[in-house]
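As described in the Methods, two query proteins were run sequentially through the folding procedure within a single session, without resetting any intermediate state between them. The first query and its resulting structure tokens are shown here.
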Amino acid sequence: MLGLCFNSRFSLCALQVLIESRLPSQLTEHLNSEIVLRSIRDIESMLLWASSTFFSVRAKKVPAKYFPQLKSVGGADASSQVDRLIRDLMVHFFNP
């Protein structure tokens, strides 16, 4: 999110606020809502839904923020590992 501000000397400055996903901490509530709305009907639709979330996008952009074990991994390898970790997280929810 970007914004503009004026300081006391009337010079223009830019503010940048990074927004992070809270989905991991609220996963149960979100998945239950999607199941009730019938957006999620099975594991395949759950994985498709998960791949379209802001969480998935941000986790691929800054993987270490959401998955600390990926601190040393970068590039395309990190993206594929994020996909695998999100899939494992979703499957674990579906089959505890």
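Immediately afterward, the second query was submitted; its sequence and tokens are:
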Amino acid sequence: MSFGKSTRCIFRPQSRRLGVVAGTSIGSPFIASVYALAGNAKSLVYGSYPYSHQTSFHCVTDGSNVTPDTICGYLCTAEPGYDGPRGLGTPNGLGGF
């Protein structure tokens, strides 16, 4: 899932300081919360539901990881449909979950 510029600032109450998270460290809890909001997590089979409801996502077609395309192709460059850096895209409501 894409978060645009995926670095996020968070407040850490234990240390009373700001911290920085990015990538899977922010994406996983975000998507877990979306599944919780959708309320049907118990009925899903291995996360297959979003793939059969791709119209419930905004397709991200711009952006890449730092590895050159010649090395890893779709795993590193955003393109229409599923791709490595952006997955299915960003949620457009709860319909894909």
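The longest helix spans residues 24-38. We note this only descriptively and draw no conclusion about the first query from it.
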